[in-house]
Amino acid sequence: MISVQDLRFSYTRAPFLTDISFQVETGSSLGFLGPSGAGKSTLQKILIGMLRHYGGQAQVAGLEARDADSAFYERIGVAFEYPTLYEKLTGRQNLAFFGSLYQNKQLDISALLDSVGLLPSADQKVAAYSKGMRTRLNFVKALLHAPDILFLDEPTSGLDPTNAHVIKQMILAEKQKGRTILITTHNMQDATELCDQVAFIVDGKLRALDTPHHLIMRKAATEVAYTYLEDGREAQGTCALAATGEDALLRRLMAENKLLTIHSREQTLGDVFMDITGRVLA
Amino acid sequence: MKAYGKNASLRRLVSLTHGELRLAARYGILAVYALFTFMYIMLLLWSNPAARPAAGGVTILSDPAAMGLFFMGAMVMLEKSQRVNSTLAASPVRVGEYIAAKVLALLGVGLLVALIVGAVAGTPLWGVVLCLVLCSPLFTMLAMMLASKSVSLNQFLLLSVPVELIIFTPALFYWFGGVTSPLWLLTPGVAGIALLHPDTALWPYAVLSLLVWNALVAVLCHRMIRAYFDSLGGGKL
Q: Do A80 and B235 touch (CB under 8 A)?
């Protein structure tokens, strides 16, 4: 569905994106992770046909992105990080207006609003919406014309945990329906939950591309941490995962059933990102 | 895959134009137009009947035709502040459709107001139609170009004042006999106001001049809005 080969782009004489190559199969999801200014924005602009002077190939839905036309935009849905809504129109009117620009049959507006808990506020002006409400409306706006490919930028940004969960479930449901999804996020938990693959982008280069599981397991859990009671106080011990059988204290605590907790310390995607890129996400 | 031809383009144009009119109503622009129209009619009715055609000509060029420059600029600036153009840029809407919808929406409103004012003032109505059809799009496109380069409404207003002065000063001089050379028809303001004059001898030259101005500005406007759309969309990823 998306095939990028040796992609290069520059705003000035200095290269900005270099040697970017990846593929996204139909019905799968890819997450872009990287610090601000890493090139993710530029990459998305190229893929949605908004930056056309690039080198290499960037094929989306069988079309070179630089040749994007109206038919191309019928097939993609984009939810930007910031809400892009008419404040003087109601939520329902916003969806009806943007939906009217597509030839694809639009989904039922009431059902979409209901799916993100906005049906009771459907006829309120967007100016009266909270940040979270705008984010939810912005998200369903991208689904309105049932696109084949979704580009979602920080889809859970500004949402409370309940609404973030709702949005994530909807994203997974869209994937189940066969949609191809590209997500840009700083949220490692979102990336782990939503993405089949994640790509680390730093300084305009693709530094890693793999499934979240493989990336996390690249450096398997190296440590075991345990807690126990000592003189009436909780104490903590650690040992290498490969040496649990040689840790005398751990062995004794296990034999005496005195362990309070024990768990391996897996890396998070954030740890892996730092390991690979030497940078933190911000 | 469905056929994406002229029908789809026409449908989008209708949707966009309808959207523009609805937003103009929501932002109070139509109400301002209505209020101004009422005021102009009252002033024209109270004025000396002999002075009405002259007053009507200036009123039509400066308001229904050119008011679009301010109103459209304000609407584009509001769109920018609400960032809706990012969504439009990543939708099937073409740059030409986006421009045409704004032109049509303000032309429709301006034409209605101008015909009412023209009828009251006794201005030749064919001239009113020609003036509006050729001037309103020009001012709307100029407004879009200025707004696309402005970062705030204040900046837009600062940029638009010299443009208005450059267009209207020669027109007013021409209308009140300050300048008489037909070469002044090469300027859009003079060409526009010449179409409101009962003497139709210069109309063909005025129409030709405005057609050339519209063509030039349309090309420039398309380029600038394309560049503006290209600058949108990514956000801070």
A: yes
